[in-house]
Design brief:
The structure is a homodimer. Chain A is α/β, with parallel strands linked by helices. The first copy, chain A, is built from 5 helices and 5 strands. Chain A has a 5-stranded parallel beta sheet with strand order 2-1-4-3-5. In chain A, helix 3 links the parallel strand 3 and strand 4. In chain A, helix 1 packs parallel to helix 5 and helix 3 packs across helix 5. Chain A is globular, with a radius of gyration of 16 Å.
């Protein structure tokens, strides 16, 4: 059982990095989680929509190259499917029961996620209607994965 | 212009406390934000539903006593209204334009929020269908308030 989280860009704030370490430690009781950071493409200040679209596609190609062949791919997308924490844990559990042992989550950059990456996804998942920073999205996702594994394993959630 | 955030319980993790300080610092450019923590009522391990309901009402009374008379009150509730970040900023801005200068946000404890507190609210706001920890809710809310003020003041969002 393995989970990869592929993220565009690095975590800048120390407190977010500390939070990530904490959740990775807690998750290690259940599953191996690896975070893979790709370099954020710098967007020129006055980039046109067309230029942004080209950059987004380039970023998408980098992401697609990192997604392994047989993994179950969940792309975070504000327009994706909303789930509550129990439904999310069920979705993961059903996949595991059906024999899936590798999951890959994708968190895009400030330009969003290219259509090609969305097409690769088995699930487009929305954490909220609200827009979160990519840094915060990473923490929220890790916490939800941890929560899901607590639910699946019938463990008390450790706050 | 003043914002109060009344929260049940204290932040335990240092990295969350650091994140709160950072957002309070950023928000100070726009508005005075004060965080008021109330003591979390300890719930006996084998509390019945009835006992929990009594505790929740007690907790609610403590919260109600802290909400000032003329403030516009927003209670965070997973079953509340979902808004995107732009709608949230518009809701705040419309209130301010109509002369409201005091907002109070309420984040409940692990038992939820009593009906009496919900009845006091001008808005029941859901950050997500997913359940977040109360600690994380505080950070997400602060970030959304900061984002809202950036949108209202037409400022570039400082990641």
């Amino acid at each position: 059982m393995k989970i990869e989280i592929i993220c565009v860009g690095k975590l800048k704030e120390t407190f977010y990095r500390t939070a990530v370490s904490e959740y990775l430690k807690r998750l290690s009781a259940f599953v191996k989680v690896e975070i893979i950071e790709t370099m954020e493409i710098s967007i020129p200040d006055k980039a046109s929509d067309k230029e942004c679209a080209i950059l987004l596609n380039k970023e998408g190609d980098v992401l697609l190259n990192k997604i392994k062949k047989d993994t179950w791919c969940i792309v975070l997308d504000v327009k994706g499917k909303s789930m509550d924490s129990v439904d999310f844990s069920r979705a993961l559990n059903e996949c595991m029961i059906s024999g899936q042992s590798h999951f890959t989550f994708i968190i895009g950059g400030s330009l969003g996620i290219s259509q090609a990456v969305k097409n690769r996804a088995q699930l487009l998942l929305s954490l909220s209607d609200m827009t979160f920073t990519h840094q915060m999205t990473r923490i929220i996702l890790l916490e939800q994965i941890y929560r899901a594994f607590c639910i699946i394993n019938n463990r008390t959630y450790h706050k």
